[in-house]
Q: What sequence folds into this?
């Protein structure tokens, strides 16, 4: 039986001055009924989330994740979350995690809509789950095969149409899940979304880093994709180790010609790309191992 | 206190031969905890739905809605629903609705994922809610103002990239909800999505019909938008009344020059457009009233 837990979190205003949140964080059975069928998360994917890795009881990059959650809330017209309260919930969950790796998911839905469209919304609804992470050793050590998939949007869509919520990590992930199924149908492990005008975006649940000579690049996070928390950490480590890093608009063709590439995410960490659309990429096993060792060290 | 109810529906295989479904449909409190926090509907908007109007106890166009649900399931790699079981649930809910108008929502999620990504999924989860409909008299009689909003996709996206799930009615509706908020910020009642290359699609929760001379047109349902069940009924009625109907790729500019236009949907029914992006459109109050009278009559 693997470890799991869940908390329901009573929403409090972002400016609530209290510093003890114990009374607002309630353990619940992760398998028991907990959300009403009128919650807008389950009805419309109307909410936001973060996935936070826990390594030996330490939640990784909590600050960056809570910052991104607040950013997603602003983009989605959701109430600003109470960062200290959510941090307390994350820390309480992490403290219960067994040694090794776990994943905490923090979710905020717009709330419960009684009586259908046009009626009042009571919200938000906030909850957290924690579970032992799957074993990602194979992806970290041997790398993964990816295929590129058209995200349908051109490079200008995010700036032109903020209602597309392209920089927000929303609960509306049906397309991300469909892309992963399509990748598996094509014999790959993961997908990389590209724009309809031929630029690289991100994976459905990970950020791309590629190497060109000694420089490490990730697609411009302005518009169209999420700023990756693990990618930010990876860039810190790369810079410390003397590797220049940068953000660029990266044409899809540049991915095929990369000197190496990785998908990085909070749970799987760094997975080297062995193949992109069936073309082999060079793999640097030593650098990947060193990067993953860093990503497994405690970081705030 | 307005009327509401909810049912949890035990999933059975699509080819299950039974004809009595009473034991598989359980009334639940629509406000009580019912779904676990591990359900993929609330975690990833990973599921599909239909909204069915009930008029004086009669569920409207149930067959067309169940057909579209099955279509959405196929596009989303979800198990085929048992149509007769879901019809029985819809009829049982409709029979409890008070006189007047109600809305039934039928939802199917991929199920519950224990232990996070990569672990097994137990599903699907199926539920239904019914609630008294809001009063839509003003929209039906006086019409609505709309703004056009870029959906970010070009006309070819749906055919090129089926993983975008553009013809499926999924639970990932965060963008649809954000578009409605943007419309209200601009002083309008609703939005009409257009492609990035300038063609009309649909509203976030309704289908467009426009009139050019004596012909009634709706955007081609191939790719990029849902086939509207209410629009199909409206076309039947228009044809019976001697008005030719058709499907076309409609440039956004043609919307401004329309001789009249409506958004049609299962609950609000036909709402004439009085303004598109601030430009006035001709309104035919008599035709709108006659169409709504038809849409309020019992239809299967």
A:
């Amino acid at each position: 039986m693997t470890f799991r837990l869940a908390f329901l979190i009573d929403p409090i205003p972002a400016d609530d001055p209290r510093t003890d949140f114990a009374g607002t964080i309630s353990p619940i059975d992760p398998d028991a009924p907990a959300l009403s069928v009128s919650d807008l998360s389950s009805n419309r994917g109307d909410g936001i989330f973060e996935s936070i890795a826990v390594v030996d009881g330490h939640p990784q990059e909590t600050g960056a994740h809570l910052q991104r959650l607040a950013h997603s809330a602003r983009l989605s017209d959701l109430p600003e979350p109470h960062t200290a309260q959510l941090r307390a919930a994350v820390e309480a969950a992490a403290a219960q995690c067994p040694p090794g790796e776990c994943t905490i998911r923090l979710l905020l839905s717009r709330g419960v809509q009684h009586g259908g469209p046009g009626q009042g919304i009571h919200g938000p609804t906030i909850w957290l789950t924690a579970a032992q992470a799957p074993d990602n050793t194979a992806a970290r050590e041997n790398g993964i095969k990816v295929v590129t998939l058209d995200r349908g949007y051109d490079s200008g869509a995010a700036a032109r149409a903020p209602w597309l919520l392209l920089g927000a990590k929303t609960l509306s992930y049906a397309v991300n899940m469909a892309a992963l199924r399509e990748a598996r149908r094509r014999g790959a492990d993961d997908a990389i979304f590209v724009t309809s005008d031929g630029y690289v975006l991100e994976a459905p649940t990970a950020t791309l880093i590629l190497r060109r000579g000694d420089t490490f690049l990730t697609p411009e996070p302005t518009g169209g994709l999420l700023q990756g928390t693990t990618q930010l950490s990876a860039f810190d480590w790369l810079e410390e180790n003397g590797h220049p890093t940068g953000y660029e608009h990266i044409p899809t063709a540049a991915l095929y010609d990369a000197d190496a590439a990785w998908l990085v995410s909070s749970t799987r960490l760094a997975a080297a790309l062995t193949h992109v659309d069936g073309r082999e990429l060079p793999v640097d096993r030593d650098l990947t191992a060193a990067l993953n060792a860093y990503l497994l060290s405690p970081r705030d």
Q: What stands out?
A: Chain A has two domains: 4-133, 138-295.
